[in-house]
Design a protein that fits this description.
Elements: E1 3-4, H1 17-27, H2 32-53, E2 58-60, H3 68-76, H4 92-100, E3 110-112, E4 119-121, E5 124-125, H5 137-147, E6 152-157, H6 159-165, E7 167-168, H7 176-197, E8 201-205, H8 217-232, E9 236-240, H9 250-254, E10 260-264, H10 272-278, E11 284-290, H11 300-314, E12 319-323, H12 342-345, H13 351-367, H14 373-388, H15 395-402, H16 415-426, H17 443-454, H18 459-480, H19 497-500, E13 504-507, E14 514-517, E15 520-522, E16 526-532, H20 539-546, E17 554-558, H21 560-565, H22 575-595, E18 600-604, H23 619-634, E19 642-647, H24 656-661, E20 666-669, H25 680-685, E21 690-693, H26 706-717, H27 738-762
Parallel strand pairs: 1-12, 2-6, 5-7, 6-8, 8-9, 9-10, 10-11, 11-12, 17-18, 18-19, 19-20, 20-21
Antiparallel strand pairs: 3-4, 13-16, 14-15
Helix pairs in contact: 1-2, 7-8, 11-13, 17-18, 22-23, 26-27
Length: 763
């Protein structure tokens, strides 16, 4: 019988209950028992939801208070020495200190999870690293479900992916052999305990199988999984891969000593034929046919074609139906959306609806198409309606796309000429200070914005409230001596959502929340059709802010690649076309800002590294259209207009040439958590333009001292020319409170002044 299975379910709850409970715990407004009760209620609700949908395999240990990779570090006792861990069980206090830092210690580094907008906490490995079982979470949650009458499939991140996603903090090469030797006994112990608890299956995720390409990879995986299979005993292993095809690792993967293998057929549908030809006769194949990362309804007829093809080759008992990856990246329940346009909503499915799609497909595979006839007819109707709807295509946008020329992605002059003109026009000091854009979004701001959207706050009152907030932050920045000001963005909800709300071709959900990191949830816009800009989006706010000061005021925009990557994107045309449509809209906004007198404009692109395909052979094509899109959006200005961009929580080494090709006048990057290590790529590349290496980790509640920030700037000054260096936080400040922002910003400004004084004395 074809089984319906799931790889993971969204954690935060339909109403973001986990976010609210975690943040209340952090603030001291509730206790640990309250947090644990909310978590237990959510887990039970989600298990029962999947059971009710008819799924045969339901995951456990896919829940996390912050991040599943951090959970693995806690499980293995992989705690950096700076946390002064006593070696006993990893406590919630220690866990959250590793995630967020505290007044005494900095947080662990955070980067993007493959090419998603989810962030994971990077494991840190020290010389002589040891591992030991230090958490009972995976066993507790399996037992919790079992006691409720629900047999689950515990989920583990595999040893090779866990180690590859971490960073070695010692000198020299990473001692892979020693790390594997140290960590595998803990996996043995975990699998043995799960077997003793009666677990029938365990899911081991190895997403790095879709990216790993080094000499000896085959032997590493074979040796590792031969050992794990022995340790698992009677518990059967599903090896899950996702986000790409198996490609060069296909034969290695399919011949590993595991019982079932999952492949992603949404991101890599072309791999199916070879998988079916190569899969050994003793293995089950899990087909990732329902998209775990997007919100469009599944084309049931097309998916059933795939499933039937697999069944014809393997038989029903060797085929499972599954999402492409964990549904962590999907919103919770479309039924909660009571404001969406009816037609567009009819094209969509969230995680709860995807469970029904999985069960329906399995039923069709087992009982024949007639058994799901009405579902197939409804699915076919939706697919045809979406394909032919006049709301999808805009002739004016298509005409403008056809008129794009190479000169639209080139500045008028080279950077060295522009830099001289900008220095003369702006008159900024050495080590100029600025912030990335947003200031704290207080409860008052959020309530006023929400009331305005609901229609309970008149527009005039709303505009006055936002302008009052802008006036206050402008005055405060002037008082503490910031050199290039920002208006603080009180009118903005989210850096992508705000722009999508004003662009044609976008729609928005009310409850389409997905986890980005920790308690941070985002509500991605939905791109359903051709994109254009009906009218200016930011000009009025920026010109008002500029009218309040003689200092330069930055215009703040989100770039086309980030808007693309952080949205749920239409899947009926190449992503590159959608990105260029957004770029043309941003180009219009940039030119209007310049015409209005805004001569410093920041176009944030934190997602450019995230969008990089997992297969290296696909990088050049992506980077070509991504760089072109950014430049289409930014190059239609005079030399005296200074273009900034911002990127955070990325590894830049692999794409540094393309970052240079963006030709932004100033780039600001996250470097404080890595102690300026992320600056190395720019130094090795000899990046010629100006750089703002972040000196304040804004994702931690810590308030760094002036001396700490000055020390980071001193590190930067050892490898960059002072004329290149800007001074700024790592990222926007909307998630921080004013009690943290005011002293930290003052420390930052004073650190910059101290560096100027050193420079003056050295002259």
């Amino acid at each position: 019988m074809v089984l319906s299975t799931n790889l993971g379910y969204p954690r935060v709850g339909a109403d973001r209950e986990l976010k609210k409970a975690v943040e209340a715990y952090w603030k001291g407004a509730s206790g640990l028992a309250d947090l644990q009760k909310t978590a237990a209620d959510l887990r039970m609700r989600h298990w029962n939801l999947q059971k009710k949908a008819g799924l045969n395999h339901i995951p456990s240990n896919d829940f996390s208070f912050y991040d599943h990779v951090l959970d693995m570090s806690a499980l293995f006792g992989c705690v950096p020495a700076r946390y002064k861990w006593d070696g006993a069980k990893v406590t919630p206090e220690l866990y959250f200190a590793m995630a967020r830092g505290n007044a005494q210690v900095s947080a662990m580094e955070m980067v993007k999870w493959f090419d998603t907008n989810y962030h994971y906490m990077v494991p840190e490995f020290a010389p002589g690293q040891t591992f030991k079982l230090s958490s009972s979470k995976i066993f507790d949650e399996y037992s919790e479900a079992k006691d409720a009458g629900i047999e689950t499939r515990p989920v583990l991140l595999g040893p090779i992916s866990y180690l590859m996603l971490g960073k070695y903090k010692g000198d020299g090469e990473t001692p892979w052999g020693a790390l594997w030797d140290a960590i595998l006994p803990v996996y043995d112990e975990i699998l043995g305990k799960l077997a003793a608890l009666g677990a029938e299956w365990v899911q081991i995720d190895e997403p790095c199988l879709t990216t790993a390409d080094w000499d000896g990879v085959e032997n590493v995986y074979k040796t590792t999984y031969a050992r794990l299979a022995q340790a698992a005993g009677s518990t059967r292993i599903l090896l899950a891969t996702y986000f790409e095809g198996l490609n060069q690792n296909m034969e290695t993967t399919l011949n590993l000593p595991v019982d079932a293998i999952h492949v992603d057929l949404r991101r890599a549908p072309g791999q199916l034929d070879k998988v079916l030809e190569t899969l050994p006769s003793d293995k089950i194949l899990s087909l990732g046919v329902v998209d775990g990362r997007n919100i469009w309804k599944n084309n049931l007829s097309a998916s059933l074609d795939v499933i039937e093809k697999a069944v014809a080759k393997l038989g029903k008992d060797r085929v499972w139906v599954a999402p492409s990856c964990s549904m962590l990246h999907s919103p919770n329940d479309l039924a909660l959306e009571d404001k969406l346009d009816h037609q567009i909503k009819s094209w969509m499915a969230y995680a709860t609806q995807k469970l029904d799609e999985l069960a329906t497909l399995a039923k069709g595979a087992n009982e024949g198409r007639d058994a799901i006839k009405s579902a197939l007819e409804a699915s076919d109707k939706v697919a045809q309606d979406r394909k032919t709807s006049p709301r999808i295509h805009d002739a004016a946008v298509q005409k403008r796309m056809a008129a794009i020329t190479p000169d639209m992605s080139q500045r008028k002059s080279s950077f060295d000429l522009r830099q001289k003109k900008q220095q003369e026009a702006l008159g900024l000091p050495a080590y100029p200070t600025t912030s990335i854009g947003s200031f704290p979004q207080t409860d008052t701001i959020r309530k006023e914005r929400a009331a305005y959207k609901k229609g309970t706050l008149p527009e005039a009152d709303y505009l006055k409230a936002m302008k009052d907030e802008i006036a206050q932050v402008v005055q405060w920045q002037e008082e503490i001596g910031v050199d290039v000001l920002v208006h603080g963005e009180p009118e903005r909800n989210d850096m992508v959502e705000y722009f999508g709300e004003q662009l044609a071709g976008f729609t928005f959900s009310k409850n389409g929340w997905v986890q980005s990191y920790g308690s941070r949830c985002v509500k991605p816009p939905i791109i359903y059709g051709d994109v254009s800009r009906p009218k200016p989006m930011t000009v009025e706010w920026s010109t008002y802010a500029q009218s309040l000061t003689d200092k330069p005021m930055k215009g703040m925009l989100t770039g086309p690649i980030t808007i693309l990557c952080w949205s749920f994107v239409r899947d009926d045309q190449p992503r590159s076309d959608t990105c260029k449509q957004i770029a043309l809209a941003i180009r219009d906004e940039v030119q209007d800002l310049e015409k209005a007198g805004i001569t410093i404009i920041q176009i944030d692109e934190p997602a450019i590294r995230e969008g990089l395909p997992l297969r290296r052979q696909d990088w050049d094509s992506y980077l070509d259209w991504a760089v072109e899109s950014f430049k289409i959006g930014t190059t239609g200005v005079e030399d005296t207009t200074q273009i900034h961009t911002h990127m955070c929580y990325s590894e830049f080494n692999d794409i540094i040439d393309s970052i240079g090709a963006l030709d932004a006048d100033v780039i600001s990057i996250e470097t404080s958590r890595s102690q300026m290590k992320l600056l190395d790529a720019f130094v090795a590349y000899k990046y010629p333009n100006e750089i703002g290496p972040g000196v304040w980790d804004i994702h931690s509640p810590r308030i760094p001292s002036q001396d700490e920030m000055a020390a980071l700037l001193q590190k930067a000054a050892q490898v960059l020319d002072p004329s290149q260096i800007w001074v700024n936080p790592d990222c926007g400040l909307k998630t921080r409170g004013w009690a943290e922002v005011k002293p930290a910003m003052l420390h930052m400004v004073n650190a910059a002044k101290a560096m100027r004084e050193k420079l003056r004395k050295a002259a």
